[in-house]
Amino acid sequence: MFPRFVVGGIIPALRLSQVVAAASKHVTTSADRNMALVYNSTHRLYSVQTNPENLTVNYDYVKKATSDGNILIVDVREPDEIKEHGKIPNSINIPLGDITSVLSTMPDKDFEQTYKRPKPSEDTQIIFYCMIGKRSGMAQQNALNIGYKNVKNYLGSWTDWATKSQ
Length: 166
Known about the structure:
Helices cover 45% and strands 11% of the residues. The protein has 166 residues and is of the alpha/beta class. The chain has 2 domains: 4-42, no CATH class; 52-164, Rhodanese-like domain (Oxidized Rhodanese, domain 1). α5 links the parallel β2 (71-75) and β3 (91-93). The longest helix is centred in the first third of the chain and has 13 residues, at 30-42. Keywords: Signal. Pfam families: Rhodanese.
């Protein structure tokens, strides 16, 4: 159905669903839609340049963030892991599998009732962490995909925190 170069990912800034939605606007027939897909897939689209240093944080940054009520720190580990190992002060737990639905579809009132914090806006600074930084990187990508703009990954995550906060 789609040209191989569209499905293969030649368009790095847009997911396929976004390409289809963009190509489908203002076209009336399937032939027009297919032509729009081909046109859009032959023109490289770019996202805003992001400095990788703005996407990750270290222990000192997170330590300061624990006392800043404007920054949301999210632990994406499973609840059993938190019970076993502990958590960063003032963080909330949203397991990785729930991140997208909680941040995108959970009503503000339910979020505040569940997490005792206001639901973050798309500009709220959010720091994700897990045990070593891998799952938190996935959570960060999920948040970026649904429109959050100021999300960071604590690369050292709980392992780094536990070592340095003793």
